[in-house]
Specification:
six-stranded parallel beta sheet; alpha/beta; pyruvate-formate lyase- activating enzyme; about 35% helix; Rossmann fold; 3 domains; five-stranded mixed beta barrel
Length: about 475
């Protein structure tokens, strides 16, 4: 793995805009306005990457379509976290043979985390001849060059070398939502949890300069964004590669100083680097949402050590206790893996007891998925699939009951919400803690903050009315 960080110079990025111009001229000569379709799998970081791909495409003269059928360019931006996600991608990729047969000029690309795996690119080369290009996350900034090479040379392109992790400022972004914005503050991961492929496909941690992040946030807020979510595989380690005296808590505080009415959210927050300073900073600012996604993965200290998580059960519970102490209204969510190799029934019960103790608002729950190339894939795993499914179902039942109880306690309370959309004949809104609320109201309210009195609750959402 190449661990060096490369900052892409303005001159290098300018070359990509030259390729954009060439692509635009290519289609102009054909007297055609081309259509592109980008399909995104996985996490919010992939969503942010897709915004950059769409930005490049628009710069190159494309309009953005809503389906692969009839599109001149199709990009599948993939996730490699779970085997099921990979198989779904391969299935959908195979189905594109039919769209390409009906639209002979269609160019198909696969990118994202899957593209960083050698076994994937080898499979594409051998079994998916209709795919025109594959490029890893490290080469995203070169997409116009890759696309131009396919159009002008008529040959497949594979940009999958073990390049150093890069940071490229100035890539255009076509954002899906004017109200809510993703802002990547760092890329890659240094933690090497034994079950996770991310460090191998996204590279080591590298932080963007604070000036660039603040400038982007300022522009978004001035353009009307009401909610900014800061992204990183571990936002809590932001700045360690750049600064001695400026960390993630300092970045949050600096963004909160920007004039305007908006909320700041962030994910993901690794317990290893979470600090009291972070929680104090969250508590001190009304612009920082009192919402925390703090993955614990397992309630067993032994399993956490086998996962290489760098904290134990008591350290995690200590963090949660302090966070709730300084933010009594905190909405807390987490990730948990059931059936990690070697997990015993007693260790699973430790996970259940932690969930019952913490009382999460909601959980993202997963059955362990073995990823080739990670240490956990080589661990002995004697627990039958049926037993893992039983544990998973029990865990979900426990959490669902807790979520329903917490939501029921919202009834009668008045909460400040961001009205963000429409679902059938109702408005949708989000509380500061990220809870979904449905309510009656005029669509002119979309994009505003309003006080909403909660009138009903289910396990997954709330209903309310404008105060």
């Amino acid at each position: 793995m190449n661990t060096k960080t490369t900052v892409i110079s303005e001159a290098e990025l300018s070359k990509q805009f030259v390729f954009c111009d060439k692509i635009s001229a290519y289609w102009h000569d054909k007297n055609t306005t081309p259509v592109a379709y980008v399909e995104t799998y996985g996490c919010q970081q992939n969503e942010a990457d897709s915004e950059k791909l769409r930005g490049y495409l628009i710069q190159s003269g494309y309009t953005i379509g809503s389906e692969a059928e009839g599109a001149d360019v199709v990009i599948m931006n993939t996730c490699a976290i779970r085997e099921h996600a990979e198989q779904r991608v391969f299935g959908n990729l195979g189905a594109l043979t039919h769209t390409k047969r009906r639209h002979q000029g269609q160019k198909i690309f696969l990118c994202g985390c899957m593209a960083g795996e050698t076994k994937v690119s080898d499979r594409i080369k051998k079994s998916y001849p209709h795919v025109d290009g594959v490029f890893s996350t490290h080469h995203l900034w070169q997409f116009p060059e890759i696309l131009w090479n396919v159009l002008s040379r008529g040959k497949r392109q594979f940009y999958i070398e073990d390049e150093p992790g890069s940071i490229a400022e100035g890539i255009p972004q076509a954002r899906d939502n004017a109200l809510k914005s993703w802002v990547s503050i760092m890329y890659g991961c240094n933690n090497f949890c034994t079950y996770c492929i991310v460090p191998y496909v996204r590279g080591r941690e590298r932080s963007r300069k604070k000036e660039d992040i603040l400038a982007e946030c300022r522009c978004l807020i001035e353009a009307g964004s009401k909610e900014i979510t800061l992204l990183g595989q571990n936002v809590n380690s932001y700045g360690k590669d750049l600064y001695n005296d400026f960390d993630f808590a300092d970045l949050l505080a600096a963004i909160a100083e920007i004039p305007g009415q908006f909320l700041i959210r962030f994910m993901t927050s690794h317990p290893r680097d979470a600090s009291k300073k972070l929680f104090d900073t969250m508590a001190a600012s009304p612009k920082i949402a009192k919402q925390l996604h703090l993955p614990f993965q397992s309630g067993s200290t032994r399993v956490l050590k086998a996962m290489n998580r760098h904290y134990d059960r008591e350290k995690y519970l200590e963090l949660v206790r302090y966070a709730k102490q300084v933010m009594p209204e905190l909405v807390l969510t987490s990730d948990v893996i059931v059936g990690f190799p070697g997990e015993t029934e007693e260790e699973f019960e430790e996970t259940i007891s932690l969930i019952e103790s913490v009382h999460y608002d909601s959980l993202f729950t997963f059955i362990f998925s073995s990823r080739p190339g990670t240490p956990a894939a080589e661990m002995e795993d004697p627990t039958p699939k049926e037993e893992k499914n039983r544990r998973f179902d029990r865990l979900c039942a426990v959490q669902n009951a807790i979520s329903e109880e917490i939501h029921a306690n919202y009834i009668g309370k008045t909460l400040r919400c961001l009205i963000d959309g429409v679902d059938k004949d109702l408005l949708t809104a989000r509380t500061e803690g990220g809870r979904l609320v449905r309510l009656e109201g005029d669509e002119s309210l979309i994009g505003t903050f309003a006080d909403v009195t909660i009138t009903g609750a289910t396990t997954w959402s709330l209903t309310g009315q404008l105060k």
